[in-house]
Automatic annotation (TrEMBL), chain A:
Superkingdom, taxonomy of origin: Bacteria
Main subcellular location: membrane
Name this protein carries in UniProt: ABC transporter permease subunit
Sequence similarity: Belongs to the binding-protein-dependent transport system permease family.
Keyword Cell inner membrane: yes
UniProtKB/TrEMBL annotation, chain B:
Entry-linked Pfam families: BPD_transp_1
Residue spans of biased composition, Low complexity class: 1-16
Disordered: annotated span: 1-23
Domain of life: Bacteria
Upper lineage: Bacteria, Bacillati, Actinomycetota, Actinomycetes, Kineosporiales
UniProt domain ABC transmembrane type-1: residue ranges: 88-295
Family named by the database record: Belongs to the binding-protein-dependent transport system permease family. CysTW subfamily.
The protein, known as: Sugar ABC transporter permease
Swiss-Prot/TrEMBL keywords: Cell membrane, Membrane, Transmembrane, Transmembrane helix, Transport
Transmembrane segments: 37-56, 92-111, 123-146, 172-198, 219-244, 276-297
Record's subcellular location: Cell membrane
Coarse class of the protein's main subcellular location: membrane
Topology in the lipid bilayer: Multi-pass membrane protein
């Protein structure tokens, strides 16, 4: 990353030496940010492996005892299983519900389309807490919160719109002539979906499924508001143990944080094989609102 | 996809239909209404049942205070209590500067790094990490890293920049830093993708007409980028505005970082006053939408045509 900073000038523009201070500033800011990021992540890892760490650069000894303690104390295995159950259910359901919706929004014009689009945009634009609290109230009232189904239902609220918004451009790219040919040959809507669209859309579905997976595992607020004692996911369990300071050793909490980090890292590495990093970020890149 | 099986294409002839009904169906189909629209149903039902209905229910609940009083009693209670009212200011005081800084810092950096260079993919990959880790883990890391005896203070003391450890966690700054750590990469990657959607030949054309680097940025790139900046600001602001876990963990949740989401949470899960909690959630949503509305209204005055590049 220490390449000459004049490289990125588009095309044959004159290479300016004047811009050097800006380049230094930019790389300096990026460097400082990355250093802070490294510090934040590394301090969690180091603390989880240290035996005692007071007022020194590094802990006085190294141990794996905190991981054993976290594994049994927090019942990490069942928490991880719950996390995966929730994430998989949300992924499957949001794909099944979201893709047909995206198909209609991509292919058809109909009265009220803008309203429907707005309906799918709002859950992404609102902070989860604002709709999470009324949603949790309703779910508790009908007896669906406090267990796995409540957590899954709550997580579907931002994930289905997310699938709809990411899949719509994918579907728009597919030539409608292919579908029309299939229909002319006598295929109904269901065969068109399973035999024509699904294979063509597979890369898009995969990408959006992985993004939903990462989001669901990382989703704190909605899970926190709807989870009961047996349906907490990893990130909520982490928050709870951090918030109940003093009950567990700090290092044991950090060990759990490292486990969470590893789960996220595996998901992230898988995700980056299929999607561009900017795709993980841009949820609604082009807002066709106006 | 299971529901798709029930919707048959309308082209299939139905023998029983009279010419009158067929005519209606034909007219509807011309306006774009036919049986294939039923594919929307599962998605719509879900959003209406799990998003619209709870919101309306919460809105209704907020007008039915638990302890009696008029329908607006909950709102009066929220805005009449200085302790509750102050949460709005505290939230905005955290979210607005954090979102502004994230966007403002991202622009020059993304502008600098918009072309190709070695390690671009690695850099963007590293920047995705804090987004996926989320605020809970960032909070835990900040407590260790920026705490009184953490590496940051230790390094600053070591090089003699400060005499006493800086208090960077369990106050406003802890939350602010956590918003930067998870928000800056988000804003940066978004702006980078907007920038790479702007056709570089526009800038080259300006250069050939004698515009210097600053004028090229100010007169060509910035106007094309501005709508993207507005969208980025909105999305970053939503992230920062809903700050909840980090405000509790690295903040000072009883005083300076008692943000509005904490107030709503406490009303719901500590006092079990769901009407009041819904009231706070509604107030929170209205304020957030107001800020976004202002930004998007400003955005609609900007040029939003094609940018000539691949993102157009």
């Amino acid at each position: 990353m220490t390449t000459t900073p004049t490289r990125d000038i588009p095309g044959p523009a004159p290479r300016r030496l004047v811009a050097s201070p800006l380049a230094w500033l930019v790389w300096g800011a990026v460097g400082l940010f990355l250093l802070a990021l490294l510090g934040v992540v590394a301090s969690v890892v180091v603390n989880s492996l240290g035996s005692r760490w007071f007022d020194t650069w590094l802990p006085s000894g190294w141990t794996a005892q905190w991981y054993r303690e976290a594994w049994t104390g927090f019942d990490l295995f069942s928490v991880i299983v719950t996390t995966l159950e929730v994430a998989l259910a949300v992924v499957v359901l949001s794909i099944l519900v979201g893709v047909p919706t995206a198909y209609v929004l991509a292919r058809r014009t109909f009265p009220g389309k803008r309203l429907v689009f707005l309906l799918f945009l709002l859950p992404i634009m609102m902070p989860p807490i604002t709709y999470g609290i009324p949603l949790a109230t309703v779910l508790y009232k009908v007896g669906l919160a406090g267990n796995l189904s409540g957590v899954i239902l709550a997580n579907l609220v931002p994930c289905v719109p997310f699938v709809v918004l990411t899949m719509t451009p994918f579907i728009e790219q597919i030539d409608p002539a292919i579908e029309n040919a299939a229909r002319m040959s006598g295929a109904g809507t269901f065969p068109v979906f399973t035999r024509i669209l699904a294979p063509l859309l597979l890369p898009g579905i995969l990408a959006s499924a992985i993004l939903v997976l990462v989001r669901t595992v990382g989703m704190f607020e909605l899970t926190f508001l709807t989870a009961g004692p047996t349906s907490t996911t990893l990130v909520v369990a982490l928050f709870n143990s951090m918030n109940a300071a003093g009950i567990r050793a700090q290092q044991s909490v950090d060990a759990m944080a490292v486990v969470y980090m590893l789960v996220m890292l595996v998901l992230l590495v898988t995700a980056l094989r299929f999607v561009n990093p900017t795709q993980l970020v841009s949820q609604v890149k082009e807002e066709p609102l106006e | 996809m299971t529901t798709a099986a029930t919707t048959e294409p309308t082209t299939e002839p139905t023998a029983a239909s009279s010419s009158d009904r067929a005519g209606l169906r034909h007219r509807l189909a011309e306006r774009g209404i036919d049986a294939r629209l039923l594919l929307l149903l599962p998605g719509l039902v879900l959003v209406i049942a799990l998003f619209v209905y709870p919101f309306v229910y919460g809105l209704g609940l907020s007008f039915q205070p638990m302890d009696g009083g008029g329908p607006f009693e909950n709102y009066r209670r929220f805005f009449g209590d200085a302790f509750q009212r102050a949460t709005i200011g505290k939230t905005l005081w955290l979210a607005l500067p954090a979102a502004l800084l994230n966007v403002a810092a991202s622009v020059p950096i993304a502008y600098r790094l918009r072309g190709r260079f070695r390690g671009k993919r690695i850099l963007t990959t590293i920047l995705v990490i804090p987004i996926t880790l989320g605020t809970v883990l960032t909070a835990e890391g900040l407590l260790n890293f920026a705490g009184p005896s953490g590496w940051l203070n230790r390094a600053l003391l070591g090089i003699g920049l400060i005499d006493d450890p800086l208090r960077l966690v369990n106050n406003y700054w802890g939350v602010f830093f956590s918003l930067i750590i998870s928000g800056f990469p988000f804003a940066f990657l978004l702006i980078l993708s907007y920038l790479s959607g702007i056709d570089p030949s526009l800038e080259r054309a300006a250069a050939s007409l004698g515009a210097n680097a600053w004028n090229r940025f100010r007169l060509i790139t910035l106007p094309l980028l501005a709508p993207g900046l507005a969208t980025t600001f909105c999305l970053t602001f939503v992230l920062a505005f809903s700050v909840f876990p980090s405000a509790i963990l690295v903040g000072d949740p009883t005083d300076s970082t008692r943000v509005i989401s904490i107030a709503a949470y406490q009303a719901a899960y500590e006092q079990y006053d769901y009407p009041f909690a819904s009231t706070i959630a509604i107030v929170m949503g209205v304020i957030e939408l107001a800020v976004i509305g202002v930004v998007l209204a400003g955005r609609s005055r900007l040029y939003t045509g094609t940018t000539g590049g691949k993102g157009a």
